[in-house]
Each structure stands twice: as C-alpha cells, then as structure tokens.
Write a structure and sequence with these properties.
Elements lengths: L2 H26 L21 H6 L21 H13 L5 E2 H8 L5 H12 L4 E4 L12 E4 L8 H9 L7 E2 H4 L6 H10 L3 E5 L6 E6 L10 H9 L8 H7 L9 H5 L37
Antiparallel strand pairs: 1-3, 2-3, 4-6, 5-6
Helix pairs in contact: 3-4, 3-5
Length: 296
C-alpha cells in the first residue's frame, strides 16, 4: 500500500467518526417545549411612562396670565393716581379733590384720599392751586392737568408761535396733550392763512404747525400756474448732462473724482533702465568702451 492510499483511508476514518458523534448529539437533544406567553399586565397595573408624563398637561383654563385683567380703578395708590391724572387730562378746567374722589369711587376712605391728595400736589403733570384760606385743609384747593405746552386756545397758539425766537414749528401731537379742541382750531386758523400746516399723507391729519403772515401771501394768476406746471423737468439721470451742456456745474458731481482721477498712460514718466553691476576697472576707463546700450 502506497503512502497516498494510507492518507486517504485515515481521512475517511476520521470523517465517519465525526459524523457519528454529530448524529448522536442531535438525537439526544430534548425537544423544546413551547414557552407560554406571559400575561400582559392590565391597564390599571401599568405605570405611566416618561413620555406619557410629559404629554399629560392640565387643561387650559382660557385665562392669559401674562396680561393682567382690567379690574376697574384698581386698589393700589399709584393706580388711583394714574386714573386721577387721566381724569384731569380730559377736563380743561380745574377740578376739586371731591370731584376726583367721586370719579375714583373712593368715598369713605379718608386715608386713601389723603395719600392721593399728597401725591397729586407734588405730581409733575398736575398744577395744584391752593385755596385762599388762612389755614388750608389737606382736601382744599383745586387740581389741573399740566400739558406739554400751556396752550388751550387759538389765541394762545398764535401768541406762542409768534413769540418764538426761531421759526421752529410745534408738534400737533404735543398740542393735543391737554387741548381737546386742537384739531378744530388748527383747521380754522389754516383756513384764515394764519398757520402753515403739514399733514400726513395717509389720513390727512395735521402733524406740524408754523406761524404764517397773511400779508406775505401773493396771488398768482391761474394761467401762469398752468404754464409753470407744463414745463417738463429732465429726469434724474439726464439732469447732470443737460447742466454740463448749458455750461453749469451739477451739484451731484463730486470734485474729488477729478482730483483723484488716474492720469493717462502717455503722461506717465517712463522709468529709466537700471544699469546692473558695478564698475571696477576704473583704471581702464579710457581704453574700454560701454556696450550696455546695445543689449536687447
């Protein structure tokens, strides 16, 4: 028997032995029993998960807590003072303390009334007029709103504008602060050419007012006005060119552009070629000749 045949027989023997062991293991393995599924816990026994806890929110009550609700005149002293100042602003005549207390519905609260009176007497937007009594009481005197401008009539408005050292106008919004009839008075004075008024384009409400002198008003013939408005002005882009053609200097032209404008190429000085090297044969200057100008 050759060596090769011995190797083949040994391989077959090992293969039969291994296959026998594998078949024995498979036959001895017990059959697997089906595992019964564990009963799922009832809904009452399950604990809420973290996601369920995050999702569960209390029902909205419909009340916005970021904006306090209007509770009437309020209960704090400064709230009552604010309402009192607004009440005085709506009245162009002085009001007594009893009228203010009646508006605030604070009858029978002597301590609160005294505190409000002390604050209003020192308020920067309220003018307090003392009574003529020798020993005035804390609830005596009258109160009046102090506007930004002490103007409450057309006569006072014209007098204030004419007495100004400059031609500065007055804001209509500031005039309305304490003057309820400002709009009607401005319209009337404008109709009599006693005021110059600028208005908003959106609602045509007066915005600024200036004093006007009717004697300076000049009548212009309607025919001349029609000829004036027929003159066609050049567009914004063509205006500089037409002014330059007429020998006029446009105001939109920047003079710095001409000063800083780069010069033309032929006006520039040409740079002279630099001679390289250093002359060392100074003792032969009369013998040697310079051929550097013939180089390309």
């Amino acid at each position: 028997m050759s060596y090769l045949q011995k190797q083949v027989d040994a391989f077959k023997t090992d293969l039969n032995f291994s296959s026998a062991k594998i078949s024995n293991k498979r036959s001895l393995a017990p059959p697997q029993q089906p595992v019964a599924a564990a009963p799922s816990p009832s809904q009452s026994q399950t604990s809420p998960s973290k996601n369920d806890q995050k999702r569960s929110r209390p029902e909205a009550s419909g009340v916005v807590y970021s904006q306090p609700a209007d509770t009437g005149t309020g209960n704090r002293i400064m709230t009552q003072v604010t309402y009192a100042v607004e009440y005085l602003k709506s009245k162009e005549v002085p009001q007594s303390l009893s009228q203010i207390i009646s508006y605030l519905s604070l009858q029978g609260q002597a301590k609160t009334q005294r505190n409000i009176a002390m604050i209003l007497q020192r308020h920067d937007r309220v003018d307090y007029v003392r009574s003529d009594d020798k020993e005035p009481r804390w609830d005596s005197g009258s109160y009046r709103y102090r506007p930004l401008h002490d103007i409450r009539s057309s006569t006072q408005l014209l007098s204030t504008l004419q007495s100004q050292p400059t031609a500065q106008g007055v804001s209509v919004r500031e005039l309305k602060d304490g003057w309820l009839g400002a709009d009607a008075a401005i319209d009337e004075l404008e109709g009599r050419d006693q005021l110059l008024v600028t208005r908003n384009k959106k609602d045509n409400h007066a915005r600024m007012v200036w004093a006007n002198d009717p004697s300076l008003s000049q009548h212009v013939d309607p025919e001349f006005q029609a000829l004036w408005y027929k003159i066609k002005l050049p567009s914004k882009d063509d205006t500089p060119q037409e002014l330059s053609e007429a020998g006029l200097k446009p105001t939109s032209e920047d003079p710095r552009l001409k000063v800083n404008a780069p010069s033309k190429g032929k006006d520039r000085k040409q740079k002279r070629p630099r001679r390289g090297g250093r002359t060392t044969n100074t003792h032969m200057l009369g013998v040697l000749r310079d051929f550097s100008s013939t180089r390309k």
